[in-house]
């Protein structure tokens, strides 16, 4: 039986697993499989393997392939697996080929490395990447890859570019992008994702623009909290949304802002606090301070209490 198109399968909370390492620094595939398995069984809507939270930048091509293959093995078709790809066009195509060989269902195209291209260059990059793979592609807008509405419309005309993940947070720009694609391509099922760190913090604002899919770093270590928030957001239970924002997500975002790279390393610390054997981050990222990990522990306890859960 042929699987449904990726765009039709992307629903619910999007799980961005961390990559597990042994004490020696090598990738620990058994621990990684366990981490992915826990996420899928907890109710993830999709697995985004080896992306930002998964330290794509720190993985060799061989490690990348093995991790994507492990995620595909664990997901076993229950949910789609989307793999990261990035750097320049040539390397992005290489990682795309590795992801396809590993059985991934799609790609998340991270911004090009180092350079700041113009709109024509960005369009050429993503169009070439889409043409060079049989996988569906989601473009991740952030940092040096900020797209105009016209460029997004141009990319949306490419059949296997199926969506845009926004990590900028410019709601005026997002509204103009959504409106432009809807106007120029009214029959196009183009998907939009809130990709900001701690995306729940801006969930209400993005919902107003029509963007309801988002990546949840919290799901990595506290799926009970993440799922409770997602249910409240999607059912219009704004009282619960605001209670979790005030009691958990806003303090978490403030803690995340206390250190460089905490969008990854603090998440990994949270996974360890919940018993995950995922190890520490690779350089150039560094671990959170002991004081910040203790603050995370206390905040986690508070969040779990808010949703009636426990350790």
- Alpha-carbon distance between the termini? 40 Å
Portion in beta strands:
5-15%
* Largest sheet report: 8 strands, parallel
Q: Helicity, in percent?
A: 40-55%
Strand order of the largest sheet: 1-2-3-4-5-6-7-8
Mean pLDDT: 96
Figure out the total of helices: 12
Tell me the Rg in angstroms.
18 Å
What spatial form do the alpha-carbon principal axes imply?
A: globular
**Secondary-structure element order, as H and E?**
HEHEHEHEHEHEHEHEHHHH
Catalytic activity: 5-dehydro-4-deoxy-D-glucarate + H(+) = 2,5-dioxopentanoate + CO2 + H2O
Pfam family, one: DHDPS
Family: Belongs to the DapA family.
Pathway: Carbohydrate acid metabolism; D-glucarate degradation; 2,5-dioxopentanoate from D-glucarate: step 2/2
Structure description:
With 311 residues, the protein is α/β, with parallel strands linked by helices. The model has no long low-confidence stretch (mean pLDDT 96). Helix 2 (29-42) runs parallel beside helix 3 (61-75). The radius of gyration is 18 Å and the shape is globular. The chain contains 12 helices and 8 strands. Helix 2 links the parallel strand 1 and strand 2 (46-49). Helix content is 48%, strand content 11%. It has an 8-stranded parallel sheet with strand order 1-2-3-4-5-6-7-8. It is an enzyme of class 4 (lyase). Its EC number is 4.2.1.41.
């Amino acid at each position: 039986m042929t699987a449904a198109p990726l765009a039709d399968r992307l629903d619910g909370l999007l799980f961005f697993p961390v990559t597990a390492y042994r004490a020696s620094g090598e990738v620990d595939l058994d621990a990684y499989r366990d981490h992915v398995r826990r996420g899928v069984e907890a109710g993830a809507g999709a697995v985004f393997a080896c992306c930002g939270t998964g330290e794509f930048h720190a993985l060799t091509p061989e490690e990348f392939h093995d991790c994507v293959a492990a995620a595909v093995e664990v997901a076993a078709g229950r949910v789609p697996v989307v793999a990261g790809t990035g750097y320049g066009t040539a390397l992005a195509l290489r990682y795309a080929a590795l992801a396809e060989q590993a059985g991934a269902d799609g790609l998340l195209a991270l911004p090009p490395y180092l350079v700041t291209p113009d709109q024509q260059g960005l369009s050429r990059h993503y169009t070439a990447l889409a043409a060079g793979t049989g996988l569906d592609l989601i473009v991740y807008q952030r940092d040096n890859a900020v797209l105009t509405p016209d460029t997004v419309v141009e990319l949306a005309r490419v059949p296997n570019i199926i969506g845009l993940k926004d990590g900028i947070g410019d709601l005026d720009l997002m509204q103009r992008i959504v409106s432009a694609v809807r106007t120029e391509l009214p029959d196009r099922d183009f998907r939009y994702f809130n990709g900001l760190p701690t995306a729940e913090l801006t969930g209400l604002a993005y919902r107003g623009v029509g963007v309801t899919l988002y990546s949840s770093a919290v799901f990595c270590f506290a799926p009970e909290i993440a799922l409770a928030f997602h249910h409240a957001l999607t059912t219009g239970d704004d009282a619960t949304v605001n209670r979790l924002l005030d009691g958990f997500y806003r303090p978490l975002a403030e803690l995340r802002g206390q250190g460089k790279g905490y969008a990854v390393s603090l998440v990994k610390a949270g996974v360890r606090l919940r018993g995950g054997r995922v190890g520490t981050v690779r350089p150039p990222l560094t671990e959170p301070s002991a004081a910040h990990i203790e603050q995370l522990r206390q905040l986690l306890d508070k969040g779990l209490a808010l949703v009636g859960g426990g350790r």
